[in-house]
Each structure stands twice: as C-alpha cells, then as structure tokens.
Prior knowledge:
45% of the residues lie in helices and 16% in strands. It is of the alpha/beta class and 287 residues long. Strands 1-9-6-7-8 form a five-stranded parallel beta sheet. A four-stranded parallel beta sheet has the order 4-3-2-5. The radius of gyration is 19 Å and the shape is globular. The chain starts with a strand and ends with a helix. Residues 273-277 have low confidence and may be disordered. The site of pyridoxal-5'-phosphate has 18 residues, from helix 2, strand 6 and helix 8.
Amino acid sequence: MFIKRDDxxxxxxxxxxxxxxxxxxxxxxTHRMDGVLTFGGAFSNHLLATASxxxxxxxxxxxxxxxxxxxxxxxxxxxxCSTLGMQIEFVSRSxxxxxxxxxxxxxxxxxxxxxxxxxxxxxxYLGVVGCQHILHECERSFDQVFVAQGTTTTSCGMLxxxxxxxxxxxxxxxxxxxxxxxxxxxxIKCAFDEDYINGLLEKVRVHTNADFGGYGRYDLKLLDxxxxxxxxxxxxxxxxxxxxxxxxxACYCEQTSDISEDILFVxxxxxxxxxxxxxxxxxxxxx
Length: 287
Ligand SMILES: *Cc1c(COP(=O)(O)O)cnc(C)c1O
C-alpha cells in the first residue's frame, strides 16, 4: 500500500483543496478580479483554504456560511477564516439551500460585483480539472485507488486521470449518498458527454460501510483505529474524511483474496493534526 501525501501540500490550502482551487485562482488572477466568494458549513476546510489563498494573493474573500445562529467565534475554522480577512455572512439553512440556483447567484453577482463565485467545495469544472493532477503526478499506476468523497469533485477529477486498469474506490462521508448519481450530475454540469461518463463510472467502486452515521460523525472504534494507524505510521488522519477512507480500505484488505494488488490511498488532507484531535475527542467520550 502506498500513500500519496497531498496533506503535506500546505497547512491551510491543504490536500485536495489546493487541487480544486488552483485553476479557479488562476482565472481570478488572469481577470484581475477583486475577490472570491464561496460557500461552506461551519467546519468547512474549503472556506479556510479559500480565505488563506485570498489573503496570500492579496485579494478579498467572502464566505457564505450555513446557519444564521452561528458567530465567528463559534469554532476555530471560522475564527481563522475571519483572522485571514474573510468577510463572513451567515445565512439561514433555507437560503443556503439555494446556493446553486441561478437567481440566487445572479443576486450575489449584483451585490458583490468584481467577485468570482466558487461553488461549495470548489465543485465546478476548474475544480474537477485540477484534481486530475493527483494521479498524473504518480510515476506508476495502481490496481486500487482509495479516496474520500464529499462533493465528489476530487473523485471526478481523479477518475479523469485514472489509468486503464485501475479501480477508483470512493468512500462517501455523507449518509445515504448516491455516489454514482452525484458524480454523474457533476460531470454533466461540467459539460462532459453522458455516454462517455457512464463508461468512466464503471471503474468506480463505492464503499458505504464507513460513513459512521454521516457527515462529522464517528465513534470510538474509528478514533481507536486512527490512533493505532498514527502510532504505527506517524501519518495523521482526520475523523471526518481520511480516517473513514482508511477504515474502508482496511475492511477491503481483510475481505480480498488477491494479496498481489497494489493499493494507493490518497491523503486529501483535512483537519490539522488529526491524530491529536482524535485523542482529545476520545477523552471527551470517556468524560
Ligand atoms: C473537503 C475534503 C474532502 C471532500 O472532497 P470532495 O472533492 O468535496 O469530494 C475529502 N477529504 C478531505 C480531507 C477534505 O477536506
């Protein structure tokens, strides 16, 4: 098994967030736009990555955050975003649900002229294309590649960059998530041909045995597993994404009879010092 450490790309614009933002930011720089506006939940790594990239480039950033009851001080991510200069606008859940609708986006364009709008999680064409490079960078191919799935942007891009005899194993972190349907939807939004997409999707295997109850949820078993992995490898995982992927990967290894397979785990980054967080959370469990 090999690990591609995209988590080491940067502390804040970490892992797949850098991949998804790269071409979006190139576009912003080419057109000398004033700033970037994007969307996220209260614990969004994407918001933090956007805030940090904008601050370093010297442009403005606006984050539309789900939950009108929240404040900037309610967690570290939002506090960091704000410190990096991001203007944060809290909206109700019903308003947030309109984030991809044409009229809603049109109103934002009028309200914030000069801002480039990036969808939640960087889920647009430029985001997908940036994620192709994750596999292009590898000097060899693998039988099995494992990656986490939120908006599916990363896995769609990796599927475009997948070599012919490789299977892409995706681990959705949302409960009751229809991975193949969501991937197809994003590919169609990016204007790929439908028949071509359906062919590509045949190379995807979905692992639904590791969502641990849904987004942001986990139990002691997962934290224990992450801790043991950290002790053995010194590779930190986070309980939201990468911990679940590695758990699904371990289950796969237990079940498969083919021990000659080469496996690649793509570490997409996530919460800084995931192992420490897991230890702290574990203490909370025991009271
Ligand atoms: C955001 C994130 C993901 C989700 O990627 P998608 O492109 O939205 O599917 C996966 N892993 C980590 C560590 C993340 O922060």
